[in-house]
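Quick check before the chapter quiz. The format below is the same one you will see on the exam, so make sure you can read both the input and the output lines.
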Amino acid sequence: MLQGPYITNTYGNGIQCQGPTRNFTPYVTGSISAQKPWEPYYDDNVYDMRDLNEDGAPDNPGSVLYQVPIRTGQKDNYNLGVGFSITWSEPLDKKLQAQCKEAAAANIEMMKQLTANKRLDFEIARLKNCGELMKQGITFHPKSPYYKVCADVVVQNVTQVPKHEHPHLHKINP
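Here is the expected output.
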């Protein structure tokens, strides 16, 4: 009994796994039946069947002598049912379920590695660009919001001094 669609986990790259589901369904049912109008008793006529002149025929046919109360047996019926049903649905081929979970785990690891690779590519590009610009004497102003982009980059082993309008020269005596 499927109470709705199975829960499907999607991991990207077309990987989808449906796991076991548990459905808990409470219910309340009830019914009432009643007869209207309510008549617990009715009066039954007792007819005059006497043959006083003994001619074999009633002397007063159709005459009511008295009435007898008769119980009708009429009842109202009430019914209330309360309960719940539980359904446990499980795949029959657990090997496929295990393979799907394994594929999902591998896909998640691959996505993490791709993210790490992209982060590394970004940081190396930032390092290279900031370093090249620093060697040329180009930096953001310290009050610029972008100054921090290259703030952690250090240029070492620079063998050239940037050229200025007035070159800085020293004489070496032999």
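If your answer matched, good. The longest helix spans residues 94-135.
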